[in-house]
Amino acid sequence: MTMALLIALLRGESFPTAMDVGWAVAGGFAGGTGIASLYRALAIGRMAVVAPITAVLAATIPVVVGFATHGLPAPVVLLGMGLAVVAVILVSQVQDTVEGRSRGLGLAVLAGVGFGLFGVCIGQLSGGHVFGPLVVVRATEAVLIGGLVVVSRSPWRPPRDLVLAICAVGVLDMAGNGAYILSAQAGSLAIASVLSSLYPVTTVILAATFLRERVTRVHLLGIALAAVAVGLIAFGSA
């Protein structure tokens, strides 16, 4: 939140309008709900079920809104978006032997809806307002998550050796949100949401590179489809 405020001041952003503040608050509640639901779903359910449901819903909801407000894009872009959704499903697959396939299913759906609505909300911000509204988003999420911690009486102090890593995650997450807003303002909300939903591809590649995790043929197919999808969307949007 502090970094977003500093960037907003350096960019010379004007104070967000009342409408922008309203969308940012709504986005903060939606995003905070999505994050809390996703982490809980991953803790009690199967990643192979939770991850695809969350990612697909997070991409689909802004796409539907984008189509309703801006119309359908070119056929080649639609094809690329469809391939991107398939790629997300394939890349999100993991092998495990945990029983209870339906555990965490409801939370996975709630997480996907939360992320999807978050994308819709921050996609409504007026042009030129990016990091200022993100300050409001982060403050809202902090209040929501803090309230959940107090109500559930969960431990809140992270281990000291993880503080730097947590800060790095926060900075990268803020940068991703800022890039999403800029992308939605410069082009199409639907395309921005689909391309951003390809984040599992990066996760799989980084896990294979740094953690030496095994990449299955299904993952490779998903990565290949993601590359084709991005190419089609870029070609059709040029």
Number of domains: 1
The largest sheet, given as strand count, sense and whether it forms a barrel, is: none
By DSSP (H or I, 4+ residues per run), the number of helices equals 10
- How would you describe the shape? globular
* Low-confidence residue ranges: none
H and E order:
HHHHHHHHHH
Strand content: under 5%
* CA(first)-CA(last) distance: 34 Å
Indicate the structural class. mainly alpha
Gyration radius over CA: 18 Å
Mean pLDDT: 83
Residue share in helix: over 70%
Strand element count: 0
Can you describe this structure?
This protein has one domain. It is 77% helix and 0% strand. The protein is built from 10 helices and no strands. Helix 2 runs antiparallel to helix 5, helix 3 runs parallel beside helix 5 and helix 7 runs antiparallel to helix 8. The protein is globular and about 40 Å long. It starts with a helix and ends with a helix.
Structure described in brief:
This protein is mainly α and 238 residues long. The protein contains 10 helices and no strands.
Sum up the structure in keywords:
single chain; 238 residues; mainly alpha; 10 helices
